[in-house]
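quick one, 350 residues, struct below
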Amino acid sequence: MARPLLQFNDNGIYCAAGDFYIDPWKPVDDAVITHAHSDHARWGNKRYLAHDLSREVMKYRLGDIRLETIGYNETIFKNGVKISFHPAGHVIGSSQVRVEHKGNIWVVSGDYKLEDDGVCTPFEPVKCHTFISECTFGMPVYKWKPPTEVHDDINNWWRTNASEGKTSVIAGYSLGKAQRILQHLDLSIGKVFLHGVIANTHGALLRNGIHLQEATRITSDLGRDQTKGGMVICPPSALGSPWMKRFHPYSFGYCSGWMTLRGAKRRRAADRGFVLSDHADWDGLIQAIDATECECVSLTHGYTASFTRYLSELGYDAHEAHTYYGGDEGVEEDSVLEESVINASEGEDV
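---
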């Protein structure tokens, strides 16, 4: 029996033929990275390969690393194994990694969504023999509304708060959700302000040539009167912190796919929960897998057991795979990073 092109071991997803890993969770010599979220792009590898649009965020998050970047649909070879990156639609710079050797084609999706969010390069299906897929929201209850409806809801909520003299504070992860929120805000309502960690990510993306709407970094000398009626975008780690007190009176909103369930809204103590996810919903997962025309599917994180059973009933050779990926909406992948950055370098300038 032929050895699989990619295998899961204690370090990550390993390609023995090319001697490299994809999104390793332990330090390795050669790491191919799907995107810059911290559960997929970890510190300590000797060499990194990522998409061009991940370059500055990777450098901001990981420091002085040995990093090579390529564009979408460009090809690179490692020990005779052909590697190319293809849009995943998850966050800016996110990629599906296509690996080909001796006619055998595998695709590692990383995290992905099918909707065009107007910020990152839209998802493109890639045909393969084996597809390694997330299933963060792999249950039928998770079905997203059209994104335009959610963005209209956010702007209407902001408009109402501003008319009542309240500041709107909305939480979203610093890479992905924050940019998506920002780009669809109606700036005729008021000014937009960014928590320091989000402003840092914003700056990295600007250095990478990404165009983002105008927003002001929140600093310690920014008074309450200056933010009144505005929109503040902060990371989830700011919730319940002393930093929030400066915005009273305010209304707090939270953006996540988990807001589908009312219990999630209560746990966040949010005034408003907005169902906005950077992951595929139930229909999106099935559509993406079907589009690959694959024979085998490995499911890496989320509702892996139930989704594996469902795909098996459809005729796929489906398997669960144990990994250390959690996802920005799965285990709050940014919160530890954000808190460490705040404590180490931001002081009150957040």
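Residues 147-274 form a domain with the Rossmann fold fold (CATH 3.40.50.10890).
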